[in-house]
């Protein structure tokens, strides 16, 4: 992998549906990608991405990402608590549907997540998130591209 002066991209990879898209965009901008997972998986573009397999508890991958991420890095995750931790460290965080987590929206999302967890624990029947759609993939690609361009302009 070629070293870059631009940000590193970290992917919470276990259930991420956009790993190939991350690699595609990273190749265009000559960025490095670190896929972090609890199990071995296929890497779409080994010239751009490396796989880090973490052992341990449920949050081991999250903890590893938070320990590595720096201000201006990019994290791709659907995990709201991980997004919150990374935003606090100065990272830009993008969900697989193209939604950017920031200081202004991640707190409310955590509160909503906790409320819904309490309702589920109390036996309320709640639906899950909508299925991942092609338009989500397209939005993700567009927003990742814009995020990188914005980081390039400010660095």
Could you describe the 3D structure shown?
The structure is a single chain. The protein has 155 residues and is α/β, with parallel strands linked by helices. Helices cover 43% and strands 14% of the residues. The chain is built from five helices and six strands; from the N terminus they run E-H-E-E-H-E-H-E-E-H-H. A six-stranded mixed β-sheet has the order 3-2-1-4-5-6, sandwiched between helices. The model has no long low-confidence stretch (mean pLDDT 89).
Please describe the topology of this protein.
Layout: E1 9-12, H1 19-29, E2 33-37, E3 49-53, H2 60-68, E4 74-76, H3 80-88, E5 92-94, E6 100-101, H4 106-121, H5 134-154
Parallel strand pairs: 1-2, 1-4, 2-3, 4-5
Antiparallel strand pairs: 5-6
Brief rundown of the structure:
This protein is an alpha/beta fold and 155 residues long.
- Structure classification: alpha/beta
Give the termini distance in whole angstroms. Answer: 21 Å
Order of helices and strands: EHEEHEHEEHH
Percent of residues in β-strands: 5-15%
Q: How much helicity do the residues have?
A: 40-55%
Could you describe the largest sheet, including whether it forms a barrel?
A: 6 strands, mixed
Mean pLDDT: 89
Please work out how many helical segments DSSP would assign. Answer: 5
Number of DSSP E strands:
6
- The unreliable regions are none
Largest sheet, spatial ordering of strands: 3-2-1-4-5-6
- Provide the gyration radius in Å: 16 Å
The geometry reads as globular
């Amino acid at each position: 992998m070629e070293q870059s002066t631009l940000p590193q991209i970290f992917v919470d990879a276990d259930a991420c549906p956009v790993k190939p898209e991350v690699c595609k965009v990273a190749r265009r901008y000559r960025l490095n990608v670190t896929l972090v997972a609890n199990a071995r998986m296929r890497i779409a573009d080994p010239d751009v991405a490396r796989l880090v397999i973490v052992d341990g508890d449920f949050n081991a991958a999250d903890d590893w990402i938070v320990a590595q991420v720096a201000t201006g890095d990019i994290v791709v995750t659907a995990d709201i608590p991980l997004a919150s931790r990374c935003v606090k460290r100065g990272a830009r965080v993008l969900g697989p549907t193209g939604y950017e987590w920031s200081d202004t929206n991640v707190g409310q999302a955590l509160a909503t997540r906790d409320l819904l967890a309490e309702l589920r624990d109390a036996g309320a029947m709640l639906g899950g998130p909508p299925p991942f759609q092609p338009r989500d993939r397209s939005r993700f690609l567009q927003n990742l591209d814009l995020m990188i361009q914005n980081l390039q302009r400010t660095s």
